[in-house]
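Sequence in, structure out.
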Amino acid sequence: MVEIDQRDLPAHFLLEPLCNKRAPGSGCDAIGGINRILAVLGTSDHCIATHPSDMAVAMRALNATIVTLKADGDRRRISIHDFYRLPGDTPHIETVLERGELITHISLPKPPVGRQAYRKVRDRASYAFALVSVAAVIGLEDGRIASTSLAFGGLGPMPWRDPGVEAVLVGQVPSRDVFAAAADALLAEAKGHGSNDFKIPLARRTLIAVLRDLTGA
């Protein structure tokens, strides 16, 4: 539960250089600086931090609902798809939580039908944030992809999910060409910042590998 609201922490957050999360309006020295593990999707000119959680990626693929208790005693149910905010020009505001609002628990619907996988690519075997991760559920019917649920870690300022990627896959016979088209859709607006440029081809290879494993194509 803690990881759902885990803060996006660029290296600069804990160091001396400028960081808009730590000091709003100060700038983002990660752009053009130390950014190897930082985001390539959903960034802005004010922030390229990556959401660090593994659990939240899986929760987004499983369509979780976040249940909260507000300061006035009211309860709120928030779809995980609506919970996070893109950095824009206010990267220090990362979620839709209000002041004094507390996450009490996470609710999961019946699991999507299909085979499931979670793959995490990282620099070492343990105690390392994802460079790229993929949480996937793929349902097959009559030799075609009937349903998909895909979420990605290590790429954006939130657990990343793009309905356009899933739309490319649904109804198709699994093949390398179809998987490549899905990867193209995922990364169409990806933007590297020097040291993290490698994440774009790495994300492509990781997604295709997961889809091949789940479909046998």
